[in-house]
Amino acid sequence: MLDSGWEKRIRGGTLVPDMAIDLHGHSLSAAHVRLDRALAQARAQDVRILLVVTGKPRPRDGGMGSGQRGAIRSEIGHWLHGSAHADAIASVRVAHPRHGGDGALYIILRRKKG
């Protein structure tokens, strides 16, 4: 759970990612591997905010378009939940428009204990 200071920074667009990865345009399997590697790297480097560009989710109206549009975005929650890094994730939030809006996520990692 994030405190109100975090929420204010996310809404206001003042949050600055420490690291970013772009999964947009990759196959599901490649994106999954890249995400896992990025999380491992982020944890090793004590990163707090990882920006993950996923691409825009599918339109809710079921409009015609590429069958793959939004595939990474629809899977990322499952990947994060089942990840070896799940215990290190404090929160996942939709990015501010300046960082990609609906096409990106902030993964906020917990501080290391000790």
Automatic annotation (TrEMBL):
Where's the Smr domain?
21-110
Q: Which superkingdom does the taxonomy of this entry point to?
A: Bacteria
What InterPro entries does the entry give? Smr_dom, Smr_dom_sf
| Signal peptide limits | none
What Pfam family does this protein match (any one)? Smr
Q: Per UniProt, which keywords does this protein have?
A: Endonuclease, Hydrolase, Nuclease
Gene Ontology terms for molecular function: endonuclease activity
Cross-referenced Gene3D superfamilies, in alphabetical order?
A: 3.30.1370.110
Protein's UniProt name: DNA-nicking Smr family endonuclease
